Amino acid sequence: MSVEKDSLPSPPPPYPYPYPSATSVQPLLITVDTSYINDYLPWSIVNLLCGWGFFGIIPLVFSIICRNDKSVNNLSGAQTMSKLALVFNILITIGGIIGWAIFIILIPHYISTLHPF
């Protein structure tokens, strides 16, 4: 049995048009306006100096995390950290004022007991 040359299927005709070029798709970037969210960083720095050291670090950390969340457009995280920074700044400010007032009132009394005149 011989196979004739004409009985084999012929290859398809060449593609008449140029091949379609590959197109690149850009990712969809959604930017959220986070400028209205306050991070209370200056207040946190003041509390670091006047809020008895260790306790002043707490609102500072929340303020820095809030600023970081704002830069990466994490709206819910920035709002949460902003509220926490506000609450702890209020608490540390009130505690610092009360603490410094007690310190100022008690220091003269303590000094007078050490060195009576």
UniProtKB/TrEMBL annotation:
Q: Tell me where the transmembrane regions lie.
A: 45-65, 86-111
Entry's InterPro entries? CD225/Dispanin_fam, IFITM_antiviral_protein
Has keyword Membrane? yes
Organism's domain of life? Eukaryota
Offer one Pfam family short name for this entry. CD225
Question: Taking the first listed entry, what is the main subcellular location of this protein, grouped into a coarse class?
Answer: membrane
Instruction: Give the GO cellular component terms, alphabetically.
Output: plasma membrane
Q: Which keywords accompany this UniProt record?
A: Membrane, Transmembrane, Transmembrane helix
Q: Does the keyword Calcium apply?
A: no
**Subcellular location field:** Membrane
The entry sums up its family as follows: Belongs to the CD225/Dispanin family.
Query: PANTHER family recorded for this chain?
Result: INTERFERON INDUCIBLE TRANSMEMBRANE PROTEIN, INTERFERON-INDUCED TRANSMEMBRANE PROTEIN 5
Q: What protein name is recorded for this chain?
A: Uncharacterized protein
Which organism is this entry from?
Answer: Rotaria sordida
